[in-house]
Amino acid sequence: MPKSSQRPGLILTVLSLAAFMASLDVFIVNVAFDDIGHDFSGTTLSQLSWVLNAYAIVYAALLVPAGRIADRYGRKGGFLVGLAVFTVASAACAASDGIWVLVACRVLQAAGAALLTPASLGLVVAATRPEERARAVRIWAATGALAAALGPAVGGILVEASWRWVFLVNVPIGIGALIAAAAWVPRSRDESVTRIPDVLGALLLAVSIGALTLGLVEGPSWGWTDGRTDTAWVIAVAAFAGFVVSSRRHAVPVIDPSLLRVRAFAWSNATSLLFAAPFAAALLTNILWMQQVWGYSAIRTGFAVAPGPLMVPIFAAVAHRLSTRVPVGRVVALGCLLMGAGGVLTSLSVDATPNYATSVLPGWLIGGVGVGLALPSILSSATADLPAARAATGSAIVNMNRQIGTALGVSLVVAVLGSPVGYAAAHTAFQHSWWAFAAVAVLAALAAPGMTPAAAAPVTAPELSVRAVAGS
Length: 472
Prior knowledge:
By secondary structure, the chain is an all-alpha fold. The protein has 3 domains: about 5-190, Growth Hormone, Chain: A (Up-down Bundle); about 200-250; about 255-470, MFS general substrate transporter like domains (Growth Hormone, Chain: A). It contains 19 helices and no strands. It has helices spanning about 5, 10-40, 45-75, 75-95, 100-125, 135-160, 165-170, 170-185, 200-220, 225-250, 265-295, 300-305, 305-320, 330-350, 355-360, 360-380, 390-415, 425-445, 460-470. Helix 2 (about 10-40) packs parallel to helix 6, helix 9 runs antiparallel to helix 10 and helix 11 (about 265-295) packs parallel to helix 17. The longest helix is centred in the first third of the chain and has 32 residues, at about 10-40. Mean pLDDT is about 85; it is low at about 1-5 and about 455-470.
């Protein structure tokens, strides 16, 4: 009897734990922002933003090619390498003595996460009996939602000791998962994958998004007409043009142009990107307001943020029921509008007095309801009109665009907030941030109706689970 049938629960636990760790790291770092800035004196908000953006950009660019490389050369090897890189990079993040050293280590973390995430999903599927596969994938996928819900609170607790624990906590977990995976997880690979993916195209995409982000983040301080800002725009356009050319010429592009000719898939990607920007902006804006204006501690901020993500699994179930009666694009559009409305309500409610229950919580809960309606529906329906063999790649591309949107959302916050001095200036700047991401949420709502699949068939639970994991 193969190992996979002897210890399926143990294998699933090990793989889910590693995926949870990689997902958790996305959410806990936001809460550590203020403490990192205080530790590295003289660090500006624009510099701090790269701690988030470097991770999101590299993860986005490498997710699709890393998954295909793992399929081609062996998922277990890819998982072990990715987990080892992520664990070592986490230790290096904790030991960083400067902001740019920390950013460089975050790049390594993202590379490891981009390799271990799709490899772990492939291993879960390969190590599970067909009749148990849907349940196993649902459990694996649930780790991402759990990471989102627990991330801010866990981050707040860890930061109370030191922001370095946000990264250091990954080390013992990573070492334990490495040992367990090496001993118990069986090998698997996809025999149909025979060609190396377009790594050059992935790098060009990373350069393009990085340059665009640089221009947005540094534009307020450099000046929007400064030569450095113009250079960033030029590099962004040139690198993106190179990415498009590479995608058209390469046999295994990061984004197959033919997929974008599928209407629902193309609009799902546009909606995913536009949705992710205000989602990331809302999280960062609320955290910065509570910490920098109200003077909340990291742990208090973490627990204050937690109720929003807790709305997501509840209203994801509501969205699933609604999508059997209402076109899924309309459900997503409603979610996007609610997310934007939550930001507007918060902007109109907050003042100098720290009154969380009446000023932040109502808008944050409304935004959480919106995320619950929108995000799982985007992920579950994006590939409905694609051939079954392209669903996994399609899901990875949607998640890639979500990560790009995350980087752009963080950049939007930095560009809008600037460096206000005094409460009046800060209040105005934060109001502009809440209204700016609400405007982008409206754009996402306008794009959402186009993502309704042509067949408009309800998505089954196994399909929902398999597709949703790309967003975990």
